[in-house]
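REQUEST FORM: STRUCTURE PREDICTION
Request ID: SP-0412
Submitted by: Lab K.M.
Chain count: 1
Length (residues): 73
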Amino acid sequence: MRPRDGPEFALGSPERSAPARHDEPFEKALGRAIRHLGGRYSEYLALITTVREYAHAHDLDLRQAARALANQP
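STATUS: Completed
RESULT:
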C-alpha cells in the first residue's frame, strides 16, 4: 500500500481514506489518521477538542460531530 500524501488528500475524503477499522474508538482512529498524514500531537489535541465541543453542543456522538464539521463550508 502506498502512502497517502500530497495536498489532494484530506481527512474525510472517502476515496482516499484508509479502510475503516470497525469497533475502533474514534479518538484512536483520529490519532492514527493524523499520524498517517504526518501531523503532530498538538494538531490531534486541537482537532479532538473541537470535535468534542461540537458533539457536546449539538448532542452528537464524536463520529457524527466530526462528519458535521467536515461538511461545513
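NOTES: The CA atoms of residues 33 and 39 lie 9 Å apart.
Reviewed by: T.R.
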